[in-house]
Specification:
Layout (H helix, E strand, L loop, with lengths): L2 H10 L48 E3 L3 E7 L2 E7 L7 E8 L3 E11 L3 E10 L4 E10 L4 E8 L4 E8 L7 E12 H16 E10 L9 E9 L3 E5 L7 H8 L4 E4 L5 H4 L10 H12 L3 E9 L14 H18 L6 E6 L6 H6 L3 H12 L4 E6 L13 H13 L8 E5 L2 E2 L6 H12 L5 E8 L5 H13 L4 E6 L22 H12 L4 E4 L5 E7 L1 E8 L6 E7 L8 E6 L1
Parallel strand pairs: 11-26, 13-14, 13-21, 14-15, 15-16, 16-17, 17-18, 18-20, 19-20, 20-21
Antiparallel strand pairs: 1-4, 2-3, 3-10, 4-9, 5-8, 5-10, 6-7, 6-9, 11-23, 12-22, 12-24, 24-25
Helix pairs in contact: 6-8, 8-9, 9-10, 10-11, 11-12
The structure holds 2-acetamido-2-deoxy-beta-D-glucopyranose (NAG) (8 copies).
């Protein structure tokens, strides 16, 4: 996404919401999930009064014109809001929210007819609307609404459920609202990192005869990390060795900021392609073992097309697009790990409007023919970062992905889920972010945070840290790219250095986390010759030095391949 466009978008859409720690199983056979097995309220309902509606409608009241009643079906009690007249007719429970907490919300929702988006919203006393999440509810089965909010004030608030269609009744059950302090949330992230990003490793050090050796000094050095942490890259890297050193000493993955976009590659006029710059950047990346996510073949925003394109009639746009995809995808075929094939095709529809509603599906199909190895991503903003955006929320993302996948010939394309992750410098709604990542991640496609950044503001670095930790601790996240760079690339939204490539506050957060997510230390074996530890997934070199002879043994270890029951035997001669 381009910086200017992004600023405009984010200024109009501020972020708030949250999400839960308990896991659950979804059935994604359709485009929305429906209840397979009934579920109890998470956290026994948390601070919600009468979460299972076993005490009539106690704790709940109708808002506006509707009426509420408890209903019993198959032995289960739930709440029904009926006789609605206006779309805003709803029901509420008043809760007390505390400042600086995260609230995970979950609820089972059903509607009386058809399919309808239902959102959960908190209205605070001072009139703030905190959007907690949206689900596409169906009739005939229960759908899970999962999300949450973050708070910046202590206030009473009304939790209510909203659906735009007044002709349907809303049913709800097993509503849960669980508060977490920031410290609790953080400790849960740390526990998840330990579990999903590290392996326990046990070394037993002996001498040649098999005698266990105590006090052996072991130096553990990480050679490679298995978690893709990357950063955007601009053409400025081609002319600055400082930029080159800054980048290659930190990152092994990249996305070019603008240099692979159509408006860059065919800027001067139709047919006048120029790949000099992206070719040179690809060559630089290759020399430095940096893997590239291709960004992007097309961008569905009408404002981000090559200038000459938009004046053409649809038929010519079709021909020019066919040439574009063939040109860029075959040029870099086999050299990129991924392509964002049609960027932002949930918020925009330039190609669908010009070429028909299957345009994106056809482009994914063609891209796969031209480059069979690249993972083909959808790439959207606001899916996890803005609970108010009704266009690209996780359920709509899933729907779009399924539509593209259902196009004949697309079944076996290696799709990927790209979540841009552009946050404002406000307390991030990590509960909502987590709910979205858990939902989309559980589909089984590779999922990356593709353009992580935080807009300028007093808490920019802190917010970035919270977001990166949330992403890294999520078991479904397969990689993260920070969409920023050194000072020379501009600091309008976010940058990571001063003019001399010294890390600024944001850069220091990134440096700190890269260091934290790496295992490098020295230790000694215990009296039984053991050294038990846990190491981040990656490749390591271990050096064990005999305490008296100084004889040393060097070994390579692949930590992600270590079996938890395995004991690694190290013989020091
Ligand atoms: C709510 O939880 C109860 C168990 O506490 C369960 O019997 C019921 O089916 C659940 N309702 C839904 C809609 O999952
Ligand atoms: C409201 O829902 C009903 C029942 O599903 C449906 O027939 C109707 O078209 C919907 N109206 C709107 C405006 O979506
Ligand atoms: C809380 O956040 C809202 C929305 O960003 C803002 O309008 C409000 O001023 C903030 N309140 C406090 C006390 O920071
Ligand atoms: C292609 O782009 C490069 C780098 O900007 C420029 O030096 C070169 O003149 C361009 N070639 C043509 C034919 O425009
Ligand atoms: C790139 O990786 C290969 C294989 O892992 C290694 O042999 C080579 O030294 C690396 N090159 C650089 C510049 O890091
Ligand atoms: C989209 O593709 C489907 C499946 O091939 C086809 O049935 C449908 O007619 C296409 N729609 C348009 C508008 O081309
Ligand atoms: C280290 O691991 C070994 C092998 O499983 C075990 O016997 C030993 O008790 C462990 N030591 C510690 C301190 O946990
Ligand atoms: C082992 O190394 C230590 C520190 O470098 C040194 O003081 C000691 O003399 C060495 N011992 C042998 C047997 O080489």
């Amino acid at each position: 996404m381009e910086v200017v466009t992004l600023l405009l978008l984010l200024c109009s859409l501020l972020c708030t919401a949250g999400h839960a720690i308990e896991a659950l199983s979804y059935d994604y056979s359709g485009t929305t999930k429906c209840l397979v097995e009934p579920e109890k309220p998470h956290y026994k309902g948390g601070i919600i009064v009468n979460p299972e509606f076993n005490n009539g409608v106690k704790g709940w009241e109708a808002l506006g014109q509707g009426a509420i009643k408890q209903q019993l079906s198959n032995g289960n009690r739930f709440l029904v809001l009926h006789s609605r007249i206006h779309p805003l007719d709803s029901f509420r429970q008043r809760v007390n929210l505390e400042k600086d907490k995260l609230y995970a919300l979950s609820a089972w929702v059903q509607i009386s007819k058809g399919n309808q988006a239902v959102s959960a919203i908190f209205k605070t006393k001072d009139g703030q609307l905190l959007h907690a999440g949206t689900v596409i509810a169906k009739s005939g089965c229960w759908s899970m609404l999962k999300g949450g909010i973050s708070t910046n004030t202590t206030s009473q608030a009304d939790l209510y459920f909203e659906t735009g269609n007044a002709t349907v009744d809303i049913w709800v059950d097993n509503i849960s609202l669980q508060p977490f302090s920031k410290a609790q949330w953080r400790s849960h992230q740390d526990a998840r990192i330990e579990k999903v990003r590290k392996n326990k490793v046990r070394f037993e050090v002996t001498d040649v005869d098999g005698t266990k050796l105590a006090g052996v000094r072991v130096v553990i050095k990480q050679i490679r990390s298995d978690f893709p942490s990357g950063c955007a890259m601009s053409k400025n890297i081609l002319t600055s060795t400082d930029y080159q050193n800054w980048f290659s000493s930190r990152f092994k993955y990249t996305t070019f900021a603008n240099e692979m976009k159509w408006y860059s590659n065919e800027a001067r006029g139709r047919g006048q392609e120029n790949y000099t710059i992206p070719d040179a950047m690809v060559a630089f990346a290759k020399q430095n073992n940096i893997s590239i996510r291709g960004h992007n073949v097309f961008w569905d925003n009408p404002k981000t097309q090559p200038k000459w394109l938009t004046t053409l009639p649809p038929e010519e746009i079709g021909k020019a697009s066919a040439r574009r995809i063939d040109s860029v995808v075959s040029r870099y075929s086999g050299q990129l790990i991924a392509w964002d094939v049609v960027n932002e095709n949930m918020h925009f529809s330039f190609f669908e409007d010009m070429l028909g509603k299957n345009a994106s599906a056809i482009f994914y199909n063609r891209a796969h023919q031209l480059d069979a190895t690249a993972t083909l991503f959808l790439n959207e903003y606001n899916t996890i970062e803005n609970s108010k955006d009704k266009t690209a929320h996780p359920e709509n993302y899933l729907k779009k992905l399924k539509e593209i996948q259902a196009y004949p010939g697309n079944e076996n394309i290696p799709f990927g889920i790209g979540l841009q992750t552009h946050f404002p410098a406000l307390p991030p709604n990590l509960a909502y972010m987590r709910a979205g990542m858990d939902m989309l991640g559980s589909l089984g496609f590779p999922m990356w945070l593709t353009e992580v950044d935080v807009n300028t503001g007093p808490n920019q670095a802190t917010v970035l840290e919270e977001i990166l930790r949330e992403g890294y601790s999520n078991p479904y996240v397969d990689g993260m790219i920070i969409f920023s760079g050194p000072y020379i690339d501009g600091c309008g939204r976010m940058c990571m250095t001063d003019p001399n490539y010294k890390s600024n506050e944001v850069g220091e957060v990134v440096d700190k986390l890269l260091k934290e997510w790496k295992s490098e230390f020295e230790a000694t074996t215990d009296i039984h010759g053991y050294l038990n530890t846990s190491l981040f997934h990656g490749g390591y070199e271990l050096t064990a030095t005999h305490p008296t002879t100084n004889a040393s043994k060097i070994m390579s270890i692949e930590v992600s391949k270590v079996n938890p029951d395995e004991i690694i035997h190290v013989k020091v001669t």
